[in-house]
Batch of 2 targets.
Target 1
Amino acid sequence: MPSKIIQVKEYTVRAHKREIHTRVFNFVCKQCDEPTKRETFGPRPLYCEKCRPPQAPKKSSVVPLRKRKPRATTYKSDVDLAN
Ligand SMILES: [Zn+2]
């Protein structure tokens, strides 16, 4: 298998604050095919507010993963090896 060494650039973005603005998009909803407009911070939305009503970010998705306690596994040696 041929191989070669390439140079990979390093990108460093420091944490920073940035002011962003909402934009009003005029678009056709993918679900109801109705021309609509929607104000959003992000990219062009796909659905109107009827099909995808704006909602607060779900808190359930922020719930941290269960902390798994390492269980000591004990192997019972009651297998009869003396066959
Ligand atoms: Zn719609």
Target 2
Amino acid sequence: MDILDIKRQARLEKYYAEAPEEQIERIREIKNHFGDELMIVAHHYQKDEIVQFADAVGDSLKLAQIAATNKTAKKIIFCGVTFMAETADILTDNSQKVIFPDPTAGCSLADMANSFQITKAWKFLKNRYSSSDIIPITYVNSSAAIKSFVGKHNGVVVTSGNARNIIEWALTRGKYLFFLPDQNLGRNISIQLGVSQEALALWKPLSEELIENNPEKTRIILWDGYCSVHQQFTVRQIKNLRNLYPDIKIIVHPECTNEVVNASDEMGSTADIINYIHKSPVGSRIAVGTDNNLVIRLQRLFSDRKVMLLNPIACSCVLMNRIDLPHLALTMDNLIQRPEELNIVKVDNETSHFAKIALENMLKLS
Ligand code: SF4
């Protein structure tokens, strides 16, 4: 913990003791004071107490792109998790500052792959296959360092929305695909594309082992990572709901396990989930397997449908939830009173350069 973190923690104690109404009023005032120069963006999984101030709500890539396009906004407050703020910094220009309200809001999935581990994995895979035969692909939910590694090796970033098209393209180009860090997304999309289980292998970064189902048939090497939020959905929860409501439809995010996806009616990105509910008939019952903050917002947005939580006792993403009203209020006050204490996200030039290549490769293919 550095000196700024210690100061921030000490100040936060005061903010947690304050009345939320005061903070809401202050945030509004400071936002008005800066006008178009300041932009607040919030990921779909943020709490309503944050979303109420957002100029844009969306997935991580969309928010980074909106921020990058809005050149008038010189200060971007990114309410999400670290890798998202990094992506925003990579895509915005040097005149824009990406400010992140809580430096401890990481992402457990992104943290499952680091530079040291990927370098070791790549060495292993290069010895086993020829490196020119392997296309590295990283989910956007990965650190800037991982995106950079992938960009340096002519790879590509994917989102849950475009993973299908890009993996389909990559299968026609590479003998082997190395997909990280979310094994569930990689597995679900590959199987949807007709890739057999036998062709899927799993790289275990902690034990540095490659687990192959059939070495002769390996095509896609998945990284042994997962999202702790989406991993908690189970087939049993789906069966229980189907017993209670035989007409229910179940839609889940592709970060869920393959067993859960198979037991569901649909799998889709956040945009697909919103679209699915939007298109469903009024009165229909739909259970959604993704972050509960988002599902609860969708219940209100589509109050004429019966939108349900697939797992009502699940926690929403605890890392996303680290950004709350006190953290935002402190950040807004710092803009005026203590700009030197703002947590500004800055990806170094080399990492940014190669990460941008991987992101641009994705944009060319989407
Ligand atoms: S929901 Fe999962 S992938 Fe998204 S930020 Fe939380 S831990 Fe990371």
